[in-house]
Predict the 3D structure of the following.
Amino acid sequence: MARLFVKSSGDRLNRNADTPISAYPFTLFAQIFPDTSTGDDTIMALGSDLLASNSGFLRMGVNSFGPFNMRVNLGNDVGGSATYDSTATFTEDAWNTASVSFESATDRRLYINGTKETHTANLAIASSLVYTAIGSTRRNSTPEDVVPFDGRIALPTIWNVTLPDAEHAMLAAGFSPLLVRPQSIVRHYPLIGRTSPEIELTGGFDLTVTGAVAADHPPVIHPVSQQAIFIPSAGGISDFRYRQRYFG
């Protein structure tokens, strides 16, 4: 499933005291169905408890002011911040894939539906990212969540590696994140939408739910496992067959 986020209601999923990543490299990903809106929309964000304005955050979002492109924001430990906007744009009211790989302080790769753009401006990541949110951002120690999302979000995932272009292309083609470097996934939220808190699969880092009801999921190619079943035949000869079981 996915979850539907309503900007005017401040819908969000979040967790305090959570540090999925603390250094380069890493990758963020989600499938999104953005509705027409005005302003910035947050897909996924990591925040800190720093006091300086606009400090200690990392945000992947949608710039809805005009071009409807991807916007990645960084705030370091001392209030320095940077914004990276993609040239490629999302399609409104349709499923898109959004991902960004951070190789280093000067190597950030933005992907919209598998199309890559590289940004090289230098800004160090904050050292105390202790807050995770889906559909909103917290820029400093203020508890209010800001820049909410309007639309649906599915399968947000974080890896502690940089994914190469071919693996971003797999995600854009609809493959589940669980099929891409599963050993390097540090957070995966299926957003089933049936439980509160919302479950997380790598270590039980579940998210507090504010609004964000269950919604239709995008088409996804899930991992499969084979399960043997025993079927007695009329002639008394045993017949083993296999059934595929989907999960993710």
User: Anything to note?
Assistant: The chain has a mean pLDDT of 83. The CA atoms of residues 30 and 156 lie 4 Å apart. The first helix runs from residue 165 to 172. The helical segments are 165-172.
